[in-house]
Specification:
With 177 residues, this protein is mostly helical. It has one domain (4-176). The chain has helices spanning 4-30, 59-72, 78-81, 89-118, 121-126, 131-140, 144-176. The longest helix has 33 residues, at 144-176.
């Protein structure tokens, strides 16, 4: 039995559940259900959001942001590498591809709202850590939560590597035929 689809689906479910968890935690933060010593004002970043940043907006910053947004959706094309193994692929990709992009886009938007609710914008702009790490430190404290997040990031990266390897091997196999 080929366990790779089961493994890939498992990692995909963990990724989506992580985004759902961050989004729901952000809504809890916005509702004010976090101790005030950790997050004094969850709505502060939403008032005059672009004022008092250490550096102004530049064309380079905009280009870099757009590149990172595009890069966050890389991997979508991997579905086309294994299309020969899918029943009724055109209909499946039309329906499920659009649905998955919409769901992931909404989850990313809610995750970013969660980050802005928990972490002050100056800290976000000057930090060397990822926004998710800062979010977990602010909401859950310093200890095991960031280690858990690091494990989820490593699992996500490993899942991406496995998906690329499977997809690339399918392309090479088809070229060989």
């Amino acid at each position: 039995m080929d366990y790779s689809p089961v493994f890939q689906n498992g990692i995909g479910i963990v990724k989506v559940l992580t985004l759902v968890f961050i989004a729901l935690t952000g809504l809890v933060v916005l509702g004010g259900h976090v101790p005030k010593e950790r997050i004094p004002d969850p709505h502060a970043n939403f008032h005059n959001a672009f004022e008092s940043l250490p550096q102004g907006a530049t064309a380079y910053g905009l280009t870099n942001a757009l590149y990172r947004i595009i890069f966050s959706y890389t991997g979508f094309e991997q579905a086309f590498n294994v299309v020969a193994e899918v029943k009724n692929p055109i209909q499946q990709l039309k329906r499920n591809g659009l649905l998955s992009l919409l769901i992931v886009t909404l989850l990313y938007i809610f995750a970013n709202i969660a980050y802005f609710a928990a972490v002050p914008k100056v800290e976000l702009a000057e930090a060397k850590l990822s926004a998710a790490s800062l979010f977990f430190i602010r909401v859950f404290g310093n200890a095991g939560s960031v280690r858990g997040l690091n494990f989820l990031v490593a699992l996500s990266s490993f899942g991406n590597l496995v998906a690329v390897l499977i997809g690339t091997s399918r392309v090479i196999r088809e070229c060989g035929r």
